[in-house]
Amino acid sequence: MRSDIDVEFQGGAAIVSGGAVDFTFEVIENPRDLNSNKVERHSLDWTGSSYMLEGLQVFPFGSSDDLPREIKDVVQNNYIAPGYLKKGTGMLWGNGPKLYREEYQEDGQVKRIWVRDADIQQWMDDWDALAYIYAACVDYQYIQAVATKVFRNRGPRIGADGFITKLEHINPNRARKARYMTSRSLKATHCVYKYNESEKAVHNKMFGIYPLFDHRNAFKYPTSVHYSNLYSFCSDYYAVPDIYGALEWIRRSTAVPMILKAFTKNSITPKYHIQSPAMFWEEKEKELQKLYASKNKTYTDNVLKEFMQGYLKKVEKVLSGVDNTGKFWHSIKYLNVDGVNLKEMGWEIKPLDQKVKDFIGAQVKVGEAANRAVGAAVGMHPALGGSGESGRSDSGSEQIYAFKNYLASGIDIEEMAVLKTINMAIKVNWPNKDLKLGFYRQQPQKEQDITPSKRAVNN
């Protein structure tokens, strides 16, 4: 094995160069088995899947019950998707949440009258409602759902009036809807909440079971969970995130910069782009931990990294042999390293075009198409995403019209989902005030309609 082979890691990806064959490499998320009834990872048939936990039928979120984490990992490794989602959060937030009441005008229009209320404002300040609402906005942008823990006072225990004292945002990847098997209804009645995201949390009893919040009997439980999500067609328990259909596009968008970096670094032209499932490395890590424990040695994260470096060098050696013998398709199909068929383990080895001009142009086009697909999936108009076609900056008029269309096409639905829990809490705490929270925002204006001294160019 050549000693001058270089393995440069970039998070879960790497560039392997200096040998006979250069390639780019990334680790992708993999399914976690729940039970024998699990469906394929990219299937949308979640309704028929469930698993049992202490008399509860738990409904998984995604075919592998880790869809929020999968979306997080795919999005946060990308260079453009996080910006789109953050901008979406900012547009939804506007000038922030404010209290209002609705009034019907003589012409039949419904108008929001923005008001201040000292009691409700003090209640919100006591538990930092702004932080909760912002977290809810972020969750909604990613998965169109918000999970909230609802806390009640002790009054009902002694016959006094009930009162919701605070709301608490909870990690949506830890909260799952469930129902007791004895229930006559197929609707979810409880929430299973894991105290951490470890796969061993359930096995180690590190979870809590909470009833779902019912606004018709809001003070029944001291602590409950409310799950606010929009309905998705033929999905009984969770919303199918808008970004779900674009996950493969986001992965392609993420891979392009790594491929181009490999090309520009020392004039490297990678011949392959390799993807390996995280499960493969998790199993290797378990083996290494057992090995170090048997030898009374301390295991650190660097142990796995060094193992990955050595393993990727072995992969390079096998690929160079494949390249030299000309047995590409047969050998790749049965790619064996240390007696392991990597294809059967879920590895994907994709050949890359070696014509320099065509190669770069093709990668740029893939990146541009992927970026457009991501923007469309999250409902972000190119003019609002920061740039138009091929990086062209859109005019102010285009941006204004795009933003007005955004405000006129479904913003109220997003607001309803994000603020549903806190508005129900306000309603049950102050039933006679007839107030709600909404996101206040000023209507955009063209520059020529604004006093010159107040135009953006002068600020």
Structure characterization notes:
There is one protein chain. With 459 residues, this protein is of the alpha+beta class. It folds into two domains: 173 residues, no CATH class; 219 residues, no CATH class. It contains twelve helices and 18 strands. A hairpin with a 5-residue loop joins strand 6 and strand 7. Helix 2 crosses helix 4, helix 4 runs antiparallel to helix 12 and helix 5 packs antiparallel against helix 9. The longest helix has 25 residues. The radius of gyration is 27 Å and the shape is globular.
In the predicted model, the low-confidence regions spanning at least 5 consecutive residues are: 30-42, 322-334, 455-459
Total strands = 18
**Major sheet characteristics:** 5 strands, mixed
Radius of gyration: 27 Å
In angstroms, what separates the terminal alpha carbons?
62 Å
Strand order of the largest sheet: 1-2-3-14-17
Task: Give the H and E element order.
Answer: EEEEEHHEEHHEEEEEEHEHHHEEEHHHHE
Count of discrete structural domains: 2
Helix proportion of residues, in percent? 25-40%
Number of helices: 12
**Strand content of the residues, in percent?**
15-25%
Shape: globular
Mean pLDDT: 77
Structural class: alpha+beta
Key descriptive features of the protein:
2 domains; 5-stranded mixed beta sheet; 18 strands; 5-stranded antiparallel beta sheet; globular; 459 residues; disordered C terminus; alpha+beta
Topology:
Layout: E1 6-10, E2 13-17, E3 23-28, E4 51-53, E5 56-58, H1 67-76, H2 81-93, E6 97-104, E7 110-115, H3 118-126, H4 129-143, E8 145-152, E9 164-169, E10 175-180, E11 190-194, E12 207-211, E13 223-229, H5 247-264, E14 272-277, H6 278-294, H7 301-325, H8 328-333, E15 336-337, E16 340-341, E17 348-351, H9 356-377, H10 382-385, H11 396-408, H12 411-429, E18 436-439
Parallel strand pairs: 3-14
Antiparallel strand pairs: 1-2, 2-3, 4-5, 5-10, 6-7, 6-18, 8-9, 8-13, 10-11, 11-12, 14-17, 15-16
Helix pairs in contact: 2-4, 4-12, 5-9
